[in-house]
Design a protein that fits this description.
By secondary structure, the protein is an alpha+beta fold. It is built from ten helices and 20 strands.
Length: 399
C-alpha cells in the first residue's frame, strides 16, 4: 500500500502545502527501509545549534519514536530525514544510499505533519488520490490504492464527503490515507495527534499501531508526549537541547534511565527525587536526608555500586508506584517516610497522593481505596530495591 504526505498549515490549502505535496510525489528508488543518521547536526544562521551529533540506526520495519520537550530538535531531525531541512554536518542514509543531497520526492518517504491541510474543494477520495495523479499513476491503480487505504482506515463511507463535513479524527484518518496510498518505504510522523482531544488521541494511537503491524513499514514518529512514546515505539530516542540522551526500548528507559532528565521525563507521574548523602554506618550503607531527620537503608542489591560514593551527596529517585502503603501507619526505620498530605486525586482505578516529606514534594500512586484526608499525616514505605541513585552535579545515573 501507499501513502501521501500530510501537510503543514490549516485546513485551507496553501501554496506551501501544495509544494510540500509535490515534493513527496516522486518515484521511490530504494529497496531497503533502514534509516541511518551518523553524527548529524543542524546549525541555523546566527550559530543556533538545533541538533548536535545525532546518530541513530532504524531497522527495516521498526517503529522508532523521537521524544523530548519543545525545542529539543526532534522535529528538525525528522525534517532533515525528509529532506525539508538541509544537513549542516553528518550523513543520512535511507537503504544503502546517502540522501543528503537527494530531493524529498526521490527519498521514497511519506510525511504526516501536525496540521493536516486537506484540499477543501475536493472530496476525501480526490484528496487521497491527488498525489498519485501528480505521479501519473494509471486511473485503475489509483482507484485500487485509494479504496484499499480507505478500507484499512475504515473511512470508505467518507470518500464522497468534503473536509468541512468531517470531524477532527476523520480528517486525521484522511491525512493518514493520503500517506498510505503512496506505499512509501518510510513513514515520518511529526506530532500528528496533537490537535485531537484526549479520547481521539488514544484511538488514533491504536490505529497507527495497527497500521504499523499491518503494513510492516519503517516508521519514525515525533512527539512531546511521553505516554505516546511509551505506548507506540519499539524503541524511543529521548532528546534534550538538540542531543540524544538515551536510545532504548520503553521498558529499558523506564527501568534503567541513564540520567536524571530521562528518569524525570519518562513516567507519569514523574519520578520523585530526594536530596541527601550516602553514609556508611557499622558496615551498612544509608541514605541520609540533608536535614538529618531520617534515613533510608540502601538495598543490598545496590551496595556494591554505591560503596565508592559513601560520604558523597546523591539524588535518590523513586517512582510514585514504589511508594507503598504502610498498613499500620507506623514508620519503619530505614524504609518509611512520614509525610503530610497536600492533595488527593482519586482516578477510579488508582489514586495519586501529593505529599510533603520534610518540605520536599513527593508523589505516590496507590490503590484506589487509599483516600487520606488533606493535611493529615500519612506514612508510606519505599520499595528501595527499585530506587535509583544519580550524581547531583552531572545528573548521570550511578545505579
Amino acid at each position: 500500500m501507499s501513502r501521501l504526505p500530510r501537510h503543514t498549515g490549516t485546513v485551507i490549502l496553501t501554496r506551501r502545502a501544495f509544494d510540500v505535496e509535490r515534493a513527496f510525489s516522486g518515484n521511490g528508488i530504494f529497496c531497503m527501509a533502514q534509516v541511518s543518521l551518523k553524527d548529524v547536526s543542524k546549525v541555523y544562521p546566527g550559530g543556533v545549534e538545533a541538533v548536535r551529533s545525532f546518530s541513530l540506526d532504524v531497522e527495516d520495519g521498526e517503529f522508532v519514536v523521537l521524544v523530548g520537550p519543545s525545542g529539543c530538535g526532534k522535529s528538525t531531525t525528522l525534517r532533515m530525514i525528509a529532506g525539508l531541512e538541509e544537513v549542516t554536518q553528518g550523513e543520512i542514509s535511507i537503504g544503502d544510499r546517502v540522501v543528503n543531497d537527494v530531493p524529498p520526492k526521490d527519498r521514497d518517504i511519506a510525511m504526516v505533519f501536525q496540521n493536516y491541510a486537506l484540499y477543501p474543494h475536493m472530496t476525501v477520495y480526490k484528496n487521497m488520490a491527488f498525489g498519485l495523479k501528480l505521479r501519473r499513476y494509471p486511473k485503475d491503480e489509483i482507484e485500487t490504492r485509494v479504496r484499499e487505504a480507505a478500507r484499512i482506515l475504515e473511512i470508505e463511507e467518507l470518500l464522497n464527503r468534503k473536509p468541512k463535513a468531517l470531524s477532527g479524527g476523520e480528517r486525521q484518518r484522511v491525512a493518514l490515507g493520503r500517506a498510505i496510498v503512496r506505499d512509501p518505504r518510510v513513514f515520518l510522523f511529526d506530532e500528528p495527534l496533537s490537535n485531537l482531544d484526549a479520547m481521539l488521541r488514544v484511538q488514533m494511537r491504536a490505529e497507527i499501531e495497527k497500521l504499523h503491524t499491518r503494513l510492516g513499514t519503517t516508521m519514525i514518529y515525533v512527539t512531546h508526549d511521553q505516554v505516546e512514546a511509551m505506548t507506540m515505539g519499539d524503541r524511543i530516542v529521548v532528546m534534550l537541547d538538540g542531543a540524544v540522551q538515551q536510545i532504548a526500548t520503553p521498558s529499558e528507559l523506564y527501568k534503567n534511565p541513564v540520567n536524571r532528565f530521562v528518569a524525570g521525563f519518562i513516567g507519569s507521574p514523574p519520578m520523585n527525587f530526594l536530596e541527601g548523602r550516602l553514609v556508611s554506618v557499622e558496615g551498612a550503607l544509608r541514605f541520609e536526608f540533608d536535614t538529618g531527620e531520617a534515613h533510608l537503608d540502601v538495598h543490598e542489591s545496590h551496595r556494591s555500586a554505591l560503596e565508592a560514593h559513601a560520604g558523597q551527596e546523591v539524588l535518590l529517585g523513586i517512582r510514585p508506584e514504589d511508594l507503598l502503603e504502610n498498613a499500620a501507619q507506623t514508620p519503619v526505620p530505614g524504609r518509611s517516610l512520614t509525610t503530610t498530605v497536600e492533595m488527593v486525586e482519586p482516578l477510579g482505578a488508582e489514586t495519586y497522593l501529593y505529599l510533603s516529606a520534610g518540605g520536599r514534594p513527593v508523589t505516590g500512586r496507590v490503590h484506589a481505596d487509599v483516600l487520606p484526608a488533606v493535611a493529615s499525616t500519612h506514612v508510606v514505605d519505599l520499595d528501595l530495591a527499585k530506587a535509583h541513585y544519580f550524581d547531583p552535579s552531572s545528573g548521570e545515573a550511578i545505579v
